[in-house]
Amino acid sequence: MNNFLVLVKKEMKESARNGKWIWLPVVLMIIGISQPLTSYYMPQILEAAGNLPDGAVIDIPTPTGEEVLIGVLSQYGTIGTLLFVLAMMGVIAQERQNGSLTLVMVRPVRAFQYIGSKFTAQLAILLVSLVASYMLTWYYTNLLFSSVSWTLMLSSLVVYSLWVVFIVAVTILAGTLLKSNGGIAGVSVLFLAVISLLTTLFPKYMEWSPGNIRGQASILLLEGEWVRSVWIVVGSTVGLSILFFLLAVFMFKRFESYHG
């Protein structure tokens, strides 16, 4: 346990040193607040852009607060997913390349502790960034549009956070299998994209898919109830995340013993 805490602390310091604690929350907050701001000022933006015929009237229906937050979740699902993968792709590969992984593993450190420390530290950074961005967006949404209760906001945030857990598990697993940052990022993004695509193409057979997380978080915002479909997706996402984490531990142990 002591080794695990030491490794987590090392990861946190390393992330602070490379600025991840700063740039990731800032970028996510910009992505988040851009949704309510652009939705609110869209008529003025279109009018300023010009090229409209004389006498044209811009009449855009005002979205509800829940619809604005659903749009934000969509932004997180595309740009946010890419950002999360890019922020994590080198956590294992970089230590392999600079030789520091060898120095860590010659000590009495187990594979479970090493992978667990990576998982915990990176998940903490990503979740803090997501929470800061989503709560700031919620504040501006309540300010500019109809009010969304904090319970609805919190429920949708908790459910969507599981997608972040899934991303961390997938990227960590890719990091144990591949050595290059580009390969890790490519495989992780491709896998997550395929999951989302299959979920869209075969909704009847992919009802359980983690690719449905955003949709279920949206349902919570609109209906305010934890319906059966939400629990199914939550259960499968948690289960697959645990499976991928354990697989990452196994593959890391096998890889290091082989190359050791």
From TrEMBL:
<feature type="transmembrane region" description="Helical">
    <location>
        <begin position="152"/>
        <end position="175"/>
    </location>
</feature>
<keyword id="KW-1133">Transmembrane helix</keyword>
<feature type="transmembrane region" description="Helical">
    <location>
        <begin position="182"/>
        <end position="202"/>
    </location>
</feature>
<dbReference type="GO" id="GO:0140359">
    <property type="term" value="F:ABC-type transporter activity"/>
</dbReference>
<feature type="transmembrane region" description="Helical">
    <location>
        <begin position="230"/>
        <end position="252"/>
    </location>
</feature>
<feature type="transmembrane region" description="Helical">
    <location>
        <begin position="73"/>
        <end position="93"/>
    </location>
</feature>
<keyword id="KW-0472">Membrane</keyword>
<feature type="transmembrane region" description="Helical">
    <location>
        <begin position="114"/>
        <end position="140"/>
    </location>
</feature>
<feature type="transmembrane region" description="Helical">
    <location>
        <begin position="21"/>
        <end position="42"/>
    </location>
</feature>
<dbReference type="Pfam" id="PF12679">
    <property type="entry name" value="ABC2_membrane_2"/>
</dbReference>
<protein>
    <submittedName>
        <fullName>ABC transporter permease</fullName>
    </submittedName>
</protein>
<dbReference type="GO" id="GO:0005886">
    <property type="term" value="C:plasma membrane"/>
</dbReference>
<keyword id="KW-0812">Transmembrane</keyword>
